[in-house]
């Protein structure tokens, strides 16, 4: 059966409420069958500031999505070394699951960056892109993205890493299970 799958690719270092809110909004607005959170091995466009292990990022994602039967984790990018180009990943995923229709969800910062994506024109022919608004970025593109308005959420993983390092509160910015995990495992200098 043909399924409509939303993919939220990211570094998730750590996952936060911004990720969960945009995934949930797009899931309902586009009437998708499921959302797969897809952690990258190495982001194509930025140097990782933090060297949180894949195991920790996966565990935090598991805790973040716990209880939502429509959310799961796709680990395909962790199987390959090097930079995780979405074009390579989606080619592999579509070969494995040719019956699925994929909607790749990105925040407005990534929408602005789209012209620099590897093989972006080919990628546009393979899958649909869904862009969601994010404070300080424009949700406009010459590429045919599906724009979805979500509540503006001024939370980022870098903000959470910085606050944790400085001993500031991160309460209510991410699920409690993830906050506890960060504290118990002393991530981000906590
Ligand atoms: N608050 C937010 N609002 C809208 N989109 C978001 C938000 N946070 C993350 N995203 C989107 O989720 C995807 C994965 O983001 P990522 O895991 O890199 O988190 P991040 O908060 O942007 O991280 P960092 O601060 O380390 O750059 C990207 O497409 C990003 O644009
Ligand atoms: O393939 C590319 O060229 C490319 C360039 C920038 C970002 N991406 C993907 O977009 C998703 C969000 O990126 P990030 O770094 O904000 O987590 C993630 O899955 C990245 O691998 C992909």
From TrEMBL:
GO terms for biological process: NAD+ biosynthetic process. Gene3D superfamilies: HUPs. Catalyzes the reversible adenylation of nicotinate mononucleotide (NaMN) to nicotinic acid adenine dinucleotide (NaAD). GO terms for molecular function: ATP binding; nicotinate-nucleotide adenylyltransferase activity. PANTHER family: NICOTINATE-NUCLEOTIDE ADENYLYLTRANSFERASE-RELATED, PHOSPHOPANTETHEINE ADENYLYLTRANSFERASE. This is Probable nicotinate-nucleotide adenylyltransferase. The gene is nadD. It comes from Lederbergia citri. Pathway: Cofactor biosynthesis; NAD(+) biosynthesis; deamido-NAD(+) from nicotinate D-ribonucleotide: step 1/1. Pfam families: CTP_transf_like. Residues 7-163 form the Cytidyltransferase-like domain. Its EC number is 2.7.7.18. It comes from the Bacteria. The keyword Metal-binding does not apply. Keywords: ATP-binding, NAD, Nucleotide-binding, Nucleotidyltransferase, Pyridine nucleotide biosynthesis, Transferase. Belongs to the NadD family. It catalyses: nicotinate beta-D-ribonucleotide + ATP + H(+) = deamido-NAD(+) + diphosphate.
């Amino acid at each position: 059966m043909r399924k409509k799958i939303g993919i939220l690719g990211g570094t998730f270092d750590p996952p936060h409420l911004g990720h969960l809110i945009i995934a949930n909004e797009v899931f309902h607005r586009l009437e998708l069958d499921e959302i797969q959170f897809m952690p990258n091995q190495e982001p194509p466009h930025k140097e990782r500031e933090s060297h949180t292990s894949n195991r920790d990022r996966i565990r935090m994602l598991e805790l973040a999505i716990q209880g939502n039967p429509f959310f799961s984790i796709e680990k395909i990018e962790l199987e390959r070394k090097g930079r995780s180009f979405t074009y390579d990943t989606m080619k592999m995923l579509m070969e494995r699951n040719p019956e699925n229709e994929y909607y790749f969800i990105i925040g407005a910062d990534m929408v602005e960056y789209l012209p620099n994506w590897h093989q972006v024109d080919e990628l546009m022919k393979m899958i649909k892109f869904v862009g969601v608004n994010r404070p300080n970025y424009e949700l406009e593109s010459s590429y045919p993205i599906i724009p979805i308005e979500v509540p503006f959420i001024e939370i980022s993983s870098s903000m959470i890493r910085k606050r944790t390092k400085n001993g500031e509160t991160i309460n209510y910015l991410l699920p409690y299970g993830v906050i506890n995990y960060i504290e118990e495992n002393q991530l981000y200098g906590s």
